[in-house]
Amino acid sequence: MLGRTTGSAATVAAELEHAWRTEAAIVNDHTVDMAAEELTFAPTFNVVVPFIDRHIIDGRADRVAIRTTRGEEVSYGDLADGVNRAGNALRELGLTQGDRVLMVVKDDPVFCYLFWGAIKAGFVPVPLNTLLRAKDYEFVIGDSEAVAVIWSPEYDEEVVPALVAASPGPAHRIRTEGEGATVRTLLGGASRDLEPVTTTALDDCFWLYSSGSTGNPKGAIHRHRDMVVTSQRYGVETLGATEDDVFFSAAKLFFAYGLGNSMTFPLWVGGTSILFDGRPTADTTFDVITRYRPTLYFGVPTLYAAQLAEYDELVPDTSSLRLCVSAGEALPPDILRRWKERTGLDILDGIGSTELLHIFISNTPGDIRPGATGRSVPGYEARIVDEEGNDVPVGESGRLLDRGHSAARAYWNNPEKTAATMHGDDWLDTGDTYVRDEDGYFYYQGRSDDMMKVGGIWTSPFEIEAKLMEHPLVLEAAIIGDKDDAGLVKPSAVVVLTDASAASDDLKTELQALCREGLAPYKYPRWIEFVDDLPKTATGKIQRFKLRS
Asked: Rounded to whole angstroms, what are the CA distances from 223 to 74, 241, 408, 478, 541?
């Protein structure tokens, strides 16, 4: 039985089904009123109920919730069963409400069981980047004061040394599978009945650690309402997602972008998610699209560029797709143009963050401006401010602030960074430099730390990178500031080619000419270096600070 409704089982099901199916949901436990301008949550609200339990009431128990590329199918009934078993298994370990459960888990149904099961039982799941090193895991284990660490055995090489070094470290250390006591054996012996712990929409729910690209990772504390807001505002109101959609995300579950794409969006609408636990490359992602026929595809600019470079050789079948999405790094206009020419499909570029959980500024179907990040997603507001925090005029660059009801409430154990990032009136400093035009479209200029002054004029690295990528031999490009013989800062380019053997001094001259012709004269790169790859975060953002160092 869900919530506080009383009466026969049939009456309870009928009452809750009516509550969920009514456009303006009846104010009952765990419901959301979506008819109002702002989403309104019931006084008692555990987010697992609308994302997991609701589908059983709505008759979706036999519908496929998850398909894996290993051939596994998980119905909504199976998912609810796994979630309850996971929550009970964690309780039987002796965890208490609010305890943190670190998850270094591959994209697999077990990830979903653990994540939602922990929340339903009153614990705090903390998915971690599976690409981190032992020193990073050691830091997060200590910083989070986690009681349990659960990991896929594929990550033994980095997780095990971190656990050995942690002192005293978590009481519970469990692999998802393998020999001995594992998550799978614990699930098999746990009860399949679990009542949701009593919480509110504003209670702490889960954490996500930032990439730590410029220091130690920071734990962003998210609340029960946050996943509802992103799933409704972006998933439904921006993408038009429905239960008929099949979702495939090259971005993984462990960070905010992938968590929404592969898990919360499909579960919010009753759709189907395709989980792929391998490395996303042009070959592997095109194979998944061809075989599993998704309708919505989520990638990052570097992957779209790689897919275009190998499109003729791989000849993928993209006919099932109705829409593609890009985030993680700004999408160069030339990639958008070439993708449209090749596939006939639009790519919706947008910006999201760990702190705001998903995309909050985006292009939309039928309203795409090449080179623009788009306009604010419903329910979000954006401002561009100068160094004193004053709004800048239209057409002038400044720091992007944004706010919405999916924002993390704080960084764990880091009041200084919380104060610096999360400002008054719920405004969040994104750390990005943007320009807004008179029509309300936002244009990315670069990370605020990556901007450079050339000849006394602020210059965007992204603009130069986008111009370089118009050349058919350029796969990726990064612009950093370097000093000439006079000690003055000028643009310097680091370039990845589609064919490494094409590198030459003549090509460098050709690329410089391309920039001279298409950009203001002072913006062309004075130096060009060809490399095999660029350093990136797990979300696909180029780490220019590593190139500068």
From this structure: 27, 23, 7, 36, 26
CATH of residue 534: 3.30.300.30
- The structure tokens listed for 360 are 């909050």
Same domain? 269 vs 213 = no
Say which range, 309-318, 396-405, 481-490, has the weakest mean pLDDT. 481-490
Q: How many residues does the chain have?
A: 549
Q: Is 53 left (phi over 0), alpha (psi -120 to 50) or beta?
A: alpha
Given pLDDT bands bounded at 50, 70 and 90, which one contains residue 522? confident
Q: Domain span at residue 32?
A: 1-44
Q: Are residues 190 and 309 in the same domain?
A: no
- As for how many domains the chain has, the answer is 4
Please check whether residue 62 lies inside any domain of the structure. Answer: no
Look at residue 318 and tell me if it is in a domain.
yes
Cis peptide before 365 (omega within 30 of 0): no
Q: pTM (2 decimals)?
A: 0.85
pLDDT band at residue 102, thresholds of 50, 70 and 90?
A: very high
Among the three residues 405, 426, 447, which one is the final residue of a domain in this structure?
Answer: 447
| Helix 505-518 vs helix 461-468: crossing angle, to nearest 10 | 120
Count of CB atoms within 10 A of residue 263's CB?
A: 25
Q: What is the DSSP string of 335-362?
A: HHHHHHHHHS--EEEEEE-TTT-SEEEE
Please indicate, yes or no, whether residues 216 and 231 belong to a single structural domain of this protein: no
Contacts of residue 104, Cβ cutoff 8 Å, sequence gap at least 6? 128, 130, 132, 137, 149, 150, 151, 152, 155, 159
Q: Are strands 489-497 and 527-531 parallel, antiparallel or unpaired?
A: parallel
Report the alpha-carbon distance of residue 365 to residue 532 in Å, rounded.
35
